[in-house]
Design goal:
Layout lengths: L2 E4 L4 H7 L4 H7 L2 E3 L1 H6 L8 E3 L5 H7 L5 H12 L3 E4 L3 H9 L4 E2 L1 H10 L7 H7 L8 H10 L3
Helix pairs in contact: 2-7, 4-5
């Protein structure tokens, strides 16, 4: 079974803040996370967000030497799951995921996939909403994303 796992505390609040959290559901159906990540999320928890328990708490504790508790819980969940992809935004989490050869995507790739699959009609309005949050991207990256999404 293919799983999407939210691996840091950025994705949920940012997409929720701009009113685009349902993109995750429309793209992936169920999304998996940990209680540590949900503890950081202040919004209403959607029914399609499934909380799973970490079975190897020792591994998680070791990962916590490098990452915060919520990020380490998602990496540990990915390691105990097969055929999954992490949603990652933070560079330090990306480094750890790469060390474990875990596949990952970010919010921008999610938006491109949503556009290419017809889930959203345009990325530009969403990028404009993102620019009003703590999530910032360069003008060059924005142009690249728009080109990738055929806009």
């Amino acid at each position: 079974m293919y799983k999407i796992i939210i691996s840091d505390s950025n994705c949920l609040p940012i997409l929720s803040e701009i009113g685009e959290l349902d993109i995750l559901y429309k793209l992936y159906g169920q999304v998996y996370t940990t209680s540590e990540i949900l503890n950081k999320f202040k919004g209403e928890i959607p029914s399609w967000l499934i909380v799973e328990t970490i079975t190897d708490s020792i591994r998680q504790s070791i990962i916590e030497l490098k990452l915060a508790k919520e990020e380490s819980s998602a990496i540990a969940l990915a390691l105990q799951s097969s055929n999954c992809t992490l949603i990652i935004e933070k560079p330090n989490v990306i480094i750890v995921a790469q060390k474990f050869n875990l596949p990952f995507i970010g919010i921008l790739e999610i938006l491109i996939n949503a556009k290419l699959k017809g889930i959203i009609t345009a990325i530009k309005p969403i990028l404009e909403k993102l620019s009003k949050t703590s999530y910032q991207i360069s003008k060059e990256l924005e142009l690249f994303i728009l080109k990738e999404a055929n806009e």
